[in-house]
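Standup notes, structure subgroup. Blocker cleared on the 2-acetamido-2-deoxy-beta-D-glucopyranose input:
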Amino acid sequence: MSQRFCKIFLTCCAISTFATVYSAATPDSDELAELQFPNEDALKRIEEVKQNIFFSDELSSSEYHDDLDIEMGLLENGGNYEWDLLIFTQQWPVTTCYHWREEDKDHECKLPAAKEFWTVHGVWPTKKGHIGPSFCNKTANFDINLLSDIKDELNHFWPDIDGESKGDWLWKHEWLKHGTCAAVLEELNNELKYFSQGITWREGFQLSKILGDSGIHPDSNNTVVAIHAALVKGLGKNPSIHCLYDSKKDVSYLEEIRICFDKSLNATDCDGVKHGNAVSIDYPGGTVITNCHISKPVHYPSLVPNRRRQEENKWKFPIVNLYKLVQFIMWFTL
Ligand SMILES: *[C@@H]1O[C@H](CO)[C@@H](O)[C@H](O)[C@H]1NC(C)=O
Ligand SMILES: *[C@@H]1O[C@H](CO)[C@@H](O)[C@H](O)[C@H]1NC(C)=O
Ligand SMILES: *[C@@H]1O[C@H](CO)[C@@H](O)[C@H](O)[C@H]1NC(C)=O
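Run returned:
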């Protein structure tokens, strides 16, 4: 029981840290404004969290267009390129496109033609408790010709949905940033093997089907716990679930689902993996790793919602509402 309490306490600490960052970013948010940490340690932690939010989020458009990546790659691993797991990330393109368009109304996005279609974002080697490693081979090149045998599958399952990208930008980026680190495994030691593995997993782990089997389809609102239960039922492993939060509308959108694999390329639990601003939250059905609001519905959109009249950069990383979270946890654990 005391262990449980400890866990709850730690979760709350993590959450309130995020909440503080959040309130600093939006002074008008009075609900969270009281959550202040006056001491130095806490401020340092907040700085760390901010760093993580900025640098670790693989979804933001900055990930797609950020040369800082290279510096971060160097900073993060200091030449140590060891990793434990592969994170296989699929994204819900509707949410990504919506996010980009809200940030920049002229941002072009290429949605897949197929309906209810999740696309691969990447296969990311990861050391538990860390982000990365990345950019493990500074002399590596990307040669699109090596992928000619699977070009159609890549275009289908692993497309670059960013209409602003040029040519093979996403694949090149994924290979140089992540593939060069995965390449220590013989099964993934060249472009063709690495990208083929992503395709194989995309075919083997069809999120639309897994979610659909539990009655979760686009154009619905679900708790993250319901999404989690559906995924665990379909995968037999614990994934992580990522949202983008539109603070203007106060709506969380399902954005990415990440499945972890061990070095034998078998699916495994994502526990212990650092996923940007996601946290682990216990509930009676298990432990959900997520950055989605735990106590609010998560919207799984079927269409990019209509453009707003007034564009504002109001996208934030979802911050679990501390008060409601505490209520939620108490409800289930006390
Ligand atoms: C890095 O990439 C280059 C170019 O493809 C290759 O020749 C070299 O073997 C790679 N180094 C490692 C350590 O994999
Ligand atoms: C889901 O929630 C959003 C945001 O509150 C709302 O606009 C939408 O109508 C809801 N959709 C369904 C199917 O309930
Ligand atoms: C990985 O999965 C394969 C096939 O399901 C199985 O034979 C093998 O033992 C697994 N490896 C590990 C390390 O669990």
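Discussed briefly. The longest helix spans residues 2-25.
Next: hand off to the docking folks.
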